Every structure is written in structure tokens, then in C-alpha cells.
Amino acid sequence: MSGGELWLLRRLLVMVLVLALRASGGEVAGSPEEETRLRVGFYRAKCPVAEDVVLAEMRAILEEDPTLAPSLLRMHYHDCFVQGCDGSIMLRSRSGKGERDATPNRSMRGYDAIQRIKARLETVCRLTVSCADIIAMAARDAVYLSKGPWYDVETGRKDGDVSVAEYAENDLAPPDSNIVDVKTFFSVKSLNGKDIAVLFGCHSIGTSHCAAFQKRLYNFTGRMDQDPSLDARYAAQLKKLCPPGGHGHGHGHGGGGAKVPIDPGSGYTFDLSYYRHVLATGGLFQSDGSLRDDPVTRGYVEKLANASSPDEYFQDFAAAMVKMGRTDVLTGDLGEIRETCDGFVD
Ligand code: HEM
Counting C-beta atoms within 10 Å of the first and last residue's C-beta, which end of the chain has fewer, N or C? Predict the structure, then answer.
């Protein structure tokens, strides 16, 4: 065989190899570049069933308790905003100083569900799928199973081993935030006005304890008054569900007392009614109502409140969730794959 023919044969072999790899999902599993960035299908080679297992477990979990769908969506937000999407929200602290113990997380639910999915995954692909990715996939599935959009979730996150209550206190905006506060909290995480308006649509599903908004009803400025930006009829309904005093912890983030839907009328369906609700009534939290106080967020709320189809919103939502899911992630050699998600930090 001549030198030229040999060269041609080699090129042919390389081309066949490339085509075969593309056909198998397009990844060069384990190549350094692929290992160090988030991407759709990160587990396709390492644990091809990972996403199917999460979805199947999520179906079973929500069949047993449908109220966990919003809780698991919320968990992804609380994980990502505190030291990045690194699964640290799952860690437990014996001294009561971990993220779970922080005020905004006292009303968090769904830890056992994530651990259940992790335990299942450990039986099929040992030490392969991170807790941070499980939370991201569970959030996507929670939305999908609440009649919201399906979107491609990026994976490849590693888990962190630090969990500090103060970080959660500092990085999660309280529900009495105004739009300036909200924009500050979100811009620190590289999320802009449109992202805020889109991500707040998460409040289309789920409930809140009365304590998180009680002040708006009974003592807005310290003079036993009501928040004037809250629709009077809606306020009257809320007062019936949340009588004065209540059993709330009064810490402004929920955690005690009765619960009410954040988007009344469609509290477990991921749809546009949250935007109509915010526009018409001022929403449940001051932070929801604050979307009306900025031209960008208000414009978006008005557009969606009047939209005839959720298609545009669903696309925006997918993009915003993917963007939030990239917040300060650990990849490659940074971080670890834990054996259990809910281990102790101290
Ligand atoms: C300034 C921003 C935000 C504030 C102040 C806020 C505040 C709250 C509060 C106080 C609750 C009620 C907790 C309880 O009493 O049980 C809640 C629930 C919830 N939040 Fe947010 N939130 C914000 C942003 C977000 C974002 C960006 C997402 C999603 C990406 C989200 C998803 C949810 C969901 C789904 C629930 C319902 C949880 C359940 O039913 O268990 N929130 N939020």
C-alpha cells in the first residue's frame, strides 16, 4: 500500500469513528473538555438511565404526595442561590447551623424525596450522579408533571461539602422585598429583569404559610394597617384563611401556621394564571407584587397576563431555568459525587 493510500485509510477510519460517536449521542465520554462543563446528556455515557430513573421516581413520589412538586422546584432555586447549584441544601448539620436551618429553608420540603431518588440511582450507577444534578432534574420533572414545559436540563454538576445557614439568610430575598431589593439579589447571580419576571412564574404552583405575608394584612407599616397595593377583595379572602396572630413564626419566610395557594385557583398547574393574579391583585408576597413596579418586569407580566398561549412563556422559562442552573456550579475536579445526599456536615 502506498503512503497516500495509507493516509487515506487512516482518515477513513477516523471519520468512521467520529460518525459512530455522533450516532451514540455525540459525546466523547471522559474527554477532559467534556468533563468540565455542564451539558445536556452528561450522563448519557456514564449512566444512560439516569434521567429516566429520576422521572420514574418523581412520578411515584408525586403520586404519593402531589404537593411535593412545587417544593422540589423551590429547592433548586434555594440550592442554586446559596453557593451555587451544588446540592449543599441537602446536607444536615448537628449543630443546627447548616443551610437547612436558615430561616428561608425552615419551610422547605422534599429532602427525603431527593434522597430517595439518590438511593435508587446508587443501585444502578454507583457514585455517578450528583445530588445537585438530581435536584435540577427533579425540578424540571416537577414542572413537567405539573403540566408545564419539558426542557433539556444541563447536567455535570458536582456536589459541595459546605453548608452554612448564614449564606442562605444572606442570599435568598425575603418575601417583603421591593423590586430594587429583588433586582439586587438576582443581579448578584447574573440574572436580569426578564429572568426575574420569568422565574417568579414558579409561584404558579405551590403554597405559602400565612407567616410569610401576614404583615401585609394586619400591620403593614406598624400602625395595624393593610398593604394598600394589595387588592381589597383578595386581602379579605386572605384574612379569612389567615386570622390575626395565627401560629406563624413571624419570621417573614413562612414556616408555621395555615397554608394558602400562591396562585389561587390553579395552585398545582404550571400556567399563566400567576401573571394574571399578580397584575390584578398584587400577588401573595410583596416581592410578587413588586414585578409591577419596574418597566421591564411589568411589561413582561402584562404580556403574559394577556397571552393566548403559554408557548412563549414556556420557552422563556426553559431558558431562565437553564441559566439559573448554571449559577456558580462545581464541575470537573471541583466538588465530589456523594454517596448520600443528606449526610452531616458537623
Ligand atoms: C424574591 C424571590 C422569591 C421570594 C421572596 C420567594 C418567597 C417564597 C415564599 C415565602 C414561599 C412560601 C414558603 C412557605 O411558607 O412554605 C415560596 C414558595 C415557593 N417558591 Fe418562592 N420566592 C422567590 C423566588 C422563587 C423562585 C425564583 C422560584 C423558582 C425558581 C420559587 C419557587 C417557589 C415555589 C415553587 C414555592 C412553593 C413551595 C411549596 O409549595 O412547597 N420562588 N417562595
Answer: N
